[in-house]
């Protein structure tokens, strides 16, 4: 087993972050003073200060002048991979960043089955805070001349257009990975230094497993957790 070579402040932040996410420190709880925490854990006060600063930038902690440092009353989004947020959720809004016909990236082209694609690039905001970037690609041969190729908001979204074109969505497959953000992602989503992103590579299929949409979805790692639910039959357990 390799030793943990991270700095002391990063290790402290990691431990406290894990305890907050596990419910060991509830929202609104006041943390011990920095000297008290340092003495209890045998670390330097400078390392604790730096760790607190990291967690404040991520939104886990908040300072109240003259009172101390508290666990912030903020929860991660639990994103069900089976759907986006409820469209009726008024706190959610989308900002269209770009719509264009493009040469699809290699992985997108392979999944979509076509090199030319119509791209719809969007930023999602929750209560006016940026929380997600999406690049959605559609076969150019299918999307040209349709609302998918326009900048206007689509009533009923892409699923309605695809359905009207004769390609209703039947299922999707997500591939998930974690990596550091690109500069564009870090700036657009205001990601604190050192925080990774969740990358969802989603392929949407119509009938006969025909791919009709591929989306690359980027979520800040400190704002999200993903939820899966799978029924298991008796036969599956034999």
From TrEMBL:
Signal peptide positions (record): none
SUPFAM superfamilies xrefs: Chorismate lyase-like, Winged helix' DNA-binding domain
Record protein name field: GntR family transcriptional regulator
Gene3D superfamilies found in the cross-reference section: Chorismate lyase-like (3.40.1410.10), Winged helix-like DNA-binding domain superfamily/Winged helix DNA-binding domain (1.10.10.10)
Keywords per UniProt: DNA-binding, Transcription, Transcription regulation
One Pfam family here: UTRA
Matching PANTHER family: GNTR-FAMILY TRANSCRIPTIONAL REGULATOR, MANNOSYL-D-GLYCERATE TRANSPORT/METABOLISM SYSTEM REPRESSOR MNGR-RELATED
HTH gntR-type domain segment(s): 6-74
């Amino acid at each position: 087993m390799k030793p943990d070579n991270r700095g002391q402040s990063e290790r402290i932040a990691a431990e406290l972050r894990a305890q907050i996410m596990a419910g060991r420190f509830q929202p609104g709880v006041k943390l011990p003073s920095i000297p008290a925490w340092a003495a209890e854990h045998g670390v330097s006060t400078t390392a604790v200060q730096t760790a607190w600063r990291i967690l404040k930038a991520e939104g886990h902690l908040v300072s109240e002048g003259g009172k101390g440092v508290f666990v912030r009353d903020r929860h991660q989004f639990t994103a069900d991979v089976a759907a986006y947020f409820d469209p009726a959720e008024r706190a959610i809004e989308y900002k269209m960043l770009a719509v264009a016909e493009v040469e699809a990236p290699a992985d997108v082209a392979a999944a979509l089955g076509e090199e030319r694609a119509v791209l719809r690039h969007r930023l999602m905001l929750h209560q006016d805070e940026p929380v997600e970037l999406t690049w959605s690609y559609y076969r150019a041969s299918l999307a040209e001349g349709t609302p998918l190729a326009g900048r206007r908001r689509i009533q009923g979204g892409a699923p309605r257009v695809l359905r009207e074109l004769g390609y209703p969505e039947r299922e999707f497959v997500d591939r998930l990975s974690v990596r550091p953000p690109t500069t564009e992602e870090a700036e657009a989503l205001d990601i604190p230094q050192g925080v990774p992103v969740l990358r969802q590579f989603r392929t949407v299929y119509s009938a006969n497993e025909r791919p009709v949409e591929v989306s690359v979805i980027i979520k800040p790692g400190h704002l999200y957790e993903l939820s899966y639910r799978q029924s298991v039959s008796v036969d599956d357990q034999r």
